[in-house]
Amino acid sequence: MSTSSSSSSSSSSTGASAAAGGVTVPPASLTRSAVRRTSSLNSVIVHDLRLKLGSRDVKRPVLNGVDLQVRRGSLHMLLGPNGCGKSTLLKVLGGLLVPDSGLIDADQPSGFVFQNPDHQVVMPTVAADVAFGLGRYELTEEEVAAAVRSSLRLVNMEDFMYRATHTLSGGQRQRVAIAGALAEDPKLLLLDELTTFLDREDQFGVLGAVKNITSQRKDVTAIWVTHRFEELQFADAASYMENGRVVFTGTPDEAKAYMRKLGAPV
């Protein structure tokens, strides 16, 4: 079961029109007009993005002029200390939050996978859960089955298609959640700290699955929020956030060198 959305931000800026309100769109294979791409090689372009959160009277800045570019077909990691704005930025990109100002241009549709798979994997079997989001489209049983099988194959879970979801490990459940997002054919995968509750084996199993997706599907981009430095080995590029801004973007090795200068045990 997944969250899929389409952004209305075709190079627009400022105010509520800068990002979507979470409108769900059909998969690209069904409605080609639902697919939109940026006009460059980048899947995501963000400029001077700002957002304050809190009560009406007391709001604090969470995003303070974010600038970010993510190359299409890559696995891009977002790192930084707690409260730096990583997850908030991801939610803005997914249309779950509307920024106060700034520019967003991103490939669409997008699929959001949350930190805790228990919030998304809710059906009794793996196949039923991956197919859940497809119920709102006019698809034949054969089309649904093909989408489910293809998505599970990409995350190395095809052999678990008819397994009861409650028997799966945490990492397997997380891969099922990713497959649920993939079934709706997103062009941008937004992945929020998926390995927080996983042991090392499951952690690298999930990472390997996402890397496999971006390697095989060059039209799919993944943005991965994490606080675990060892995961950088799977990234194509990485950005470091601090105080609501992206302060560094580079290769994984460059990111490690940058964080060592900050005193991080990388």
TrEMBL record:
<dbReference type="InterPro" id="IPR015856">
    <property type="entry name" value="ABC_transpr_CbiO/EcfA_su"/>
</dbReference>
<keyword id="KW-0067">ATP-binding</keyword>
<protein>
    <recommendedName>
        <fullName>ABC transporter domain-containing protein</fullName>
    </recommendedName>
</protein>
<dbReference type="InterPro" id="IPR003439">
    <property type="entry name" value="ABC_transporter-like_ATP-bd"/>
</dbReference>
<keyword id="KW-0813">Transport</keyword>
<dbReference type="InterPro" id="IPR050334">
    <property type="entry name" value="Molybdenum_import_ModC"/>
</dbReference>
<dbReference type="Pfam" id="PF00005">
    <property type="entry name" value="ABC_tran"/>
</dbReference>
<dbReference type="GO" id="GO:0005524">
    <property type="term" value="F:ATP binding"/>
</dbReference>
<dbReference type="GO" id="GO:0055085">
    <property type="term" value="P:transmembrane transport"/>
</dbReference>
<dbReference type="GO" id="GO:0009941">
    <property type="term" value="C:chloroplast envelope"/>
</dbReference>
<keyword id="KW-0547">Nucleotide-binding</keyword>
<dbReference type="InterPro" id="IPR027417">
    <property type="entry name" value="P-loop_NTPase"/>
</dbReference>
<dbReference type="InterPro" id="IPR003593">
    <property type="entry name" value="AAA+_ATPase"/>
</dbReference>
<feature type="domain" description="ABC transporter">
    <location>
        <begin position="44"/>
        <end position="266"/>
    </location>
</feature>
<feature type="region of interest" description="Disordered">
    <location>
        <begin position="1"/>
        <end position="23"/>
    </location>
</feature>
<dbReference type="GO" id="GO:0016887">
    <property type="term" value="F:ATP hydrolysis activity"/>
</dbReference>
<dbReference type="GO" id="GO:0016020">
    <property type="term" value="C:membrane"/>
</dbReference>
<dbReference type="InterPro" id="IPR017871">
    <property type="entry name" value="ABC_transporter-like_CS"/>
</dbReference>
